[in-house]
Structures are given as structure tokens and as C-alpha cells.
Write a structure and sequence with these properties.
The chain is an alpha/beta fold. It is built from twelve helices and nine strands. It has a six-stranded mixed beta sheet with strand order 4-9-8-7-5-6. It has a three-stranded mixed beta sheet with strand order 1-2-3, with helices on both faces. GO terms for molecular function: carnitine O-acetyltransferase activity.
Length: about 350
């Protein structure tokens, strides 16, 4: 369709290049989303008619003054765009941005509409794309939860890694819903290396499975649950530590697979069921946090999976759950809250130090 658009008019390629060469796009939407779910869906995809999804940076401003951001991953990961948006929100909140004169400059050039030449074939292609887009989006559910029971302030009092702790919330919630632990991807930054992007931190471990089973076992004592939790946490922190040093297994295996020539036979390891199952990410997770953000997220990476984005702020936790509707994302949304509350109740009994008496 891109080639057909270029061929449909003599100026189309030049007009397309203007969009593609821009540093960022500003999307001015006529809609006025109110709830977190509505805003998140609008920032995830909108109606598809006012987005250019190949662009790495898109700022969206809605009719009612709310605003958001869409980042496309192939150019960069979430960390730099998170810092960009955190800078914008923080400096605005602190009143440090000089907005200049309220009078429009007389020297400012007027906006120029890019009039693409369209033929019958392109119009039909656009109509087909609109239908495909609406059908795809209609199959998905998205739910945002701002859990205000506690945040990293209390988690640190438990002497736990906030990120690892929230990963265990996700593990417990998934186990509550599905009765089993499945492959979980957490992004690990390897930007300390030249051209470094990410490695995979695999959250599920023998220790995490033992802990979630214990949490759902009414005959397991609070002390036993807490002891198993500490082991699960240690396993996760250890794996993440290895991953950020470039010592994970997934990028290494990816490199080996990509080094195969087209005529070469795949080694047996890459054809075994255990390999494909272990890389079928039923949970795709990652953390980006900002005190001024009201949620962020992405879609699932496999049809029977979930995209679970989370933020760990001082006094609250945020979860964005997206998946196909048939996977009931609203139920995982519910179980995340339930898991977080149960863990607080347990660890306030077993991990908080008793206050020292004053003479």
C-alpha cells in the first residue's frame, strides 16, 4: 500500500517523506477521554485515523486538555522516552517552563496541509485498513489499576527490591487466575554496552513456583510463606543482576539462531518443544515509573498472553493489563489487587520490624 500511495500521485512521495523525516508528531485529537482506561486506550491506538505508528515519538493532546505519548520500539527502548516524558511532566509541575508570549508571532508560518493524491485503489485500501484496525482493536481489552494500598515506601520497609516484589505480585495474580506458572518476560536493560538494548529476565523460577503454591495453600504457615518468598525474591534479583551484565540466555540463543545460514539445519535444541514453550511469553512485563504518569502499557505478545506494564511509585502501584478479550484481562486486573493486598497483610506480620519502645 505504501508503494501504491507513492505511485498514486507525483507529489505523494515528497509529502510522505515530510512526515517520515520529522523528529516527532503532535496528534491533536477531537476526543475527550476521561477514565484511565479511556485515556490509555486513546494513547495506545486511538481510532487509528490520527496516528502514524511508524514514528518513534508521538505526543497526543486531547480536546479536554489531557495529553499522552506513544513510543514505537524499534528505534529505542522505553527508558529514554520515559526520561523525556518525566522531564516534560516534572518541569511543567514545577513551573519551570517559560511558555512565552500568549500572542502568536506574526512571523510564524501557517500550517500547511499535505494533500495526498488518492485514486480508487488507495481509497479502497484505506477503507480495508480502517475495517481491519477496528476489528483488531475491538478484540482487545485494556484495564488500568492505580493501586493505592502502598508503594515502594512500604516495600523498602519490608527490605525487598521493589521491582522484584511487584514481579511476585504478578506471579501470584497469574497463578490465582490460571492455577499454573508460565513463562514471564521482564525487560532487562543492557544499555551499559555499546549498541546494548535489552536482555530477558526470566521471572519464573523453581523458587517462585514454590512460593505461589504456598500462598494458595491454606495449610502453609505465614512464616513458611515468607521464607519461600525471600527465596523467590533472591532468585529474581540474582537473575536480573546477571541479565543486565549481558549474562542472560535469551539474546545469546537469539544470536546463535540468527547466525545459522539458510541452508543449514537447525540444531536439535532449537526444535525441541521445551525451547518453544520456554519462549512463549504468556506474560510480557516491564517497569517504567514516574510520579506524574497515570499509567502506560502495550499489548500481549502471544494470543494467549497478557501485556502487563507496571509502575512502582512511592505510595502507589500501577498496573496496565492488555490482552485479547477472551483472556479476560479484567480478571487478571482483579487478581493483581487481591495479590498485592494479601502480600501486604502477610508481610506486615512477618517482615516489619517491631517498633522499639522508648524509655
Amino acid at each position: 500500500n505504501r508503494k501504491a500511495l507513492i505511485n498514486a500521485g507525483s507529489n505523494n512521495e515528497e509529502l510522505l517523506r515530510k512526515i517520515e523525516s520529522s523528529v516527532f508528531l503532535l496528534c491533536l485529537d477531537d476526543s475527550s477521554p476521561v477514565t484511565r482506561d479511556e485515556v490509555s486506550r486513546a494513547c495506545w491506538h486511538g481510532d487509528g485515523r490520527n496516528r502514524f505508528f511508524d514514528k518513534a515519538l508521538q505526543f497526543v493532546v486531547f480536546e479536554n486538555g489531557k495529553a499522552g505519548f506513544i513510543g514505537e520500539h524499534s528505534t529505542m527502548d522505553g527508558t529514554p522516552t520515559c526520561r523525556l516524558n518525566d522531564y516534560v511532566c516534572t518541569t511543567l509541575a514545577q513551573g519551570k517552563i517559560d511558555h512565552g508570549s500568549a500572542t502568536v508571532s506574526a512571523n510564524l508560518s501557517k500550517p500547511e496541509k499535505l494533500n495526498f493524491a488518492l485514486n480508487t485503489g488507495m481509497i479502497k485500501a484505506i477503507e480495508a485498513s480502517e475495517k481491519n484496525f477496528d476489528d483488531l482493536i475491538g478484540k482487545h481489552g485494556l484495564h488500568v489499576q492505580n493501586y493505592e494500598g502502598y508503594g515502594k515506601g512500604l516495600i523498602k520497609k519490608f527490605k525487598c527490591s521493589p521491582d522484584a516484589y511487584v514481579q511476585m505480585i504478578i506471579q501470584l495474580a497469574y497463578f490465582k487466575m490460571h492455577g499454573v506458572s508460565r513463562p514471564t518476560y521482564e525487560s532487562a536493560q543492557v544499555r551499559k554496552f555499546q549498541h546494548g538494548r535489552t536482555e530477558t529476565c526470566r521471572t519464573v523460577s523453581t523458587d517462585s513456583v514454590a512460593w505461589v503454591k504456598a500462598m494458595e495453600n491454606p495449610h502453609t504457615t505465614a512464616e513458611e510463606k515468607t521464607s519461600l518468598f525471600k527465596k523467590a525474591l533472591e532468585s529474581h534479583v540474582s537473575y536480573m543482576g546477571s541479565a543486565v551484565e549481558g549474562k542472560g540466555c535469551d539474546r545469546h540463543l537469539l544470536g546463535l539462531r540468527l547466525s545459522l545460514k539458510s541452508h543449514e539445519t537447525k540444531p536439535e535444541m532449537f526444535t525441541q518443544e521445551v525451547f518453544s514453550r520456554s519462549s512463549h511469553w504468556n506474560l510480557s512485563t516491564s517497569q517504567l515509573s514516574g510520579e506524574h504518569f497515570d499509567g502506560y502499557g502495550w499489548g500481549e505478545v502471544v494470543p494467549d498472553g497478557y501485556g502487563v506494564a507496571y509502575m512502582v511509585n512511592e505510595n502507589n502501584l500501577s498496573f496496565n493489563v492488555a490482552s485479547l478479550k477472551e483472556m479476560h484481562p479484567e480478571r487478571l486486573h482483579h487478581y493483581l489487587k487481591e495479590a498485592a493486598s494479601e502480600m501486604r497483610t502477610l508481610f506486615e506480620q512477618t517482615l516489619l520490624e517491631a517498633p522499639k519502645s522508648k524509655l
